Fold:
Amino acid sequence: MNKLLKLFGFDAKTMTLKKEIVGGITSFLTMAYILAVNPSIISSTGMDQGAVFTSTCIAAVISTLVMAIYAKLPFVLAPGMGLNAFFAFTVVLTMGYTWQFALTAVLIEGLIFILLTLTGLRQKMVDAIPLVLRSAISPGIGLFIALVGLKSAGIVVSSEATFVTIGNLKDPAVLLAIFGIFVSAVLLVKKITGALLIGIIATTLVGIPIGVTHCSSIIDVPPSIAPIVMQFEWSSILSIDMAICVMTFLFIDMFDTMGTLIGVAGRAGMIDDKGNIHSLGKAFMADAVGTTIGACLGSSTITTFVESASGVEAGGRSGLTAATAAFCFLLSLFFAPLFLCIPGQATAPALILVGVMMMGGIGKIDFTKYAIAIPCFFCIALMPMTYSISDGILIGVISYVAIHLFSGSLKEDNPCNNVTTSTIILAVLFILKYALL
Structure:
């Protein structure tokens, strides 16, 4: 136990091995889709799909272990969704650059992140966000991941007329997801340890006879990553387009990670009354190091996954949870067919119910004070509506500063909610981001 405390921050007085391990497995299963989705997206650039699968696993293992051992927090990292789409569809397929150019941009972004973390600038950015606005991040992320789950389940689908609408509730796959939600919800109400994990396994098994779960094999040899390792385009590092790509990666990754850490840490009870998160600087460093190493391995930007919230809800509180998830990613190198047979309908219930759990922070917002309520509403609502955690935070901060400045309500009862010079500078930077990038 002393070794676990020293290595992962595991405290036997307040934590249990069972909950930490179950939490790690749950986090992994809810984000295991990245093993299938990321290679599919990144390979559209011409990169070898098998090599991308292997690099995705290895990058997730290394960056998550850094989080587990260095930061000692239960957060899991992997190549980020949204960031991989920007990498493939914007930088390569739209702007016309090579995937080597895109990897170079990711490497530079990672190095800049390390510098920003060492100087404490990332921590200062968090401190510049008013406390009440930080309270809006967790509910916003809750709605965001609930939408991801509902979409994955087929309960919510796209519509040309209304953007989104209800799915086909007669579809066996959708009915399977509803079954998973029901089972997981009942287990949660009965306070069964590992409720979300049990729900995922049960839904996967039920999906076999109805033809939703497909598993052709169990073990396979991982493909080589040789075609994509250390493939950089140094001749373009001083170009304007490289600067634009790096800055865009920076903004998206920085505030996605910031929002995820604040939201999940809040749910885990790791934020004090002043809004400070334990080991936040170390968590930022793990993210920065992960992105840098990932680029060398041929991976798009590494980020902290919001699905880590499912592991936290399962009881994970220390780096042991992250280490367990890292071990699962390592196993997936050899058991990819087995892990990838878990359908989206099985993991969707966990995401939806975690979304419910993360709504608790909304009670900290006084919606009778419009100077506070309006920016917080924007922050909460725009995360799912723009499908972006970072956009919700950025617009929340901009509106908070603008409303307080022009309404003359700069000072609030709580000093933590005041508009400071740092907050104004942050808002200006966000406006420039939308104007220039």
